[in-house]
C-alpha cells in the first residue's frame, strides 16, 4: 500500500510528499519551506538515512520504519509552536490505538505496575510501549521572511525494527507482535493529527491538549530523575504546567519546573540516571 492521507486531513488542506528513502524528513521539510511551500505538508518515508534526534543525536531508520514530518508555517509566539510536540504525541498515541489490536502490548515502566494506556507519553517527546521507547518526536524551526517561521514536526516510529545500542530500552511494533505497516500507521496518524491540531487551535486550546496529554503521561506520580546538563535532579513527577514544562517535587518538598532534560523513571530513577 502506498502512503496516503486520511480524508479528514485532505479536507483540512493537508498535502503529502512521499519518498521511499530520504536523508532526513525534517531537513527536507524545512528545505521546502525555504523554497516557499505554504505549509500543511507531510513529508514521509519508510527509510531515513541521516535523521536527527534530540540534542543532535543521529537517528537513522531501516526500511519499513516510519519517518514523518509535518511542515507548518506560522507567525506569532514561538513558545506556542514549541507545544506542537505534545499535539504530535497525542496524535501518534491515538493513531497507534486505532491500528494496533489490543493484546500483547502492555505498559510497565522499569518494573512499575501497568497503566491503563497501551501507549504512554514520556515528557517531552517520546511514546512508550511496554516501558520501552517506540517513537520519538523532534521539533525544528527556521525563520522566514516577514517575521514568519516554519516548524518541522518530526515523528519517527519503530515499526519493524529498533536500535539496540541505546542507554534505555527500545522496541518496535513488530517486536510487540503487531503486523501494522508504516503506511497504515501514517494514514491513522494524519487523521489523528487533524483532530488534535484543531483542538490545539494555534495554542488557544493548549489547556485541553495538556489535560489529554496528562491522561497518557508515563510515570505520573512516581519517582523520577532528570539529567540537566550533567546534573541529576530527583523527585516525584507531579504534573506538567500550563506551558507544558515538567514539574517535580524533590525530597525536601520544593517544587521544580524543568524546561529541558533527559527523564528516567522507576527503578532507573532510584538507582541512578
From TrEMBL:
It catalyses: biotin + L-lysyl-[protein] + ATP = N(6)-biotinyl-L-lysyl-[protein] + AMP + diphosphate + H(+). Keywords: ATP-binding, Biotin, Ligase, Nucleotide-binding. InterPro entries: aa-tRNA-synth_II/BPL/LPL, Biotin_CoA_COase_ligase, BPL_C, BPL_LPL_catalytic, Transcriptional_repressor_C. Residues 15-201 form the BPL/LPL catalytic domain. It comes from the Bacteria. GO terms for molecular function: biotin--[biotin carboxyl-carrier protein] ligase activity. Signal peptide: none annotated. Its EC number is 6.3.4.15. This is biotin--[biotin carboxyl-carrier protein] ligase. It comes from Aquamicrobium soli. The lineage of its organism: Bacteria, Pseudomonadati, Pseudomonadota, Alphaproteobacteria, Hyphomicrobiales.
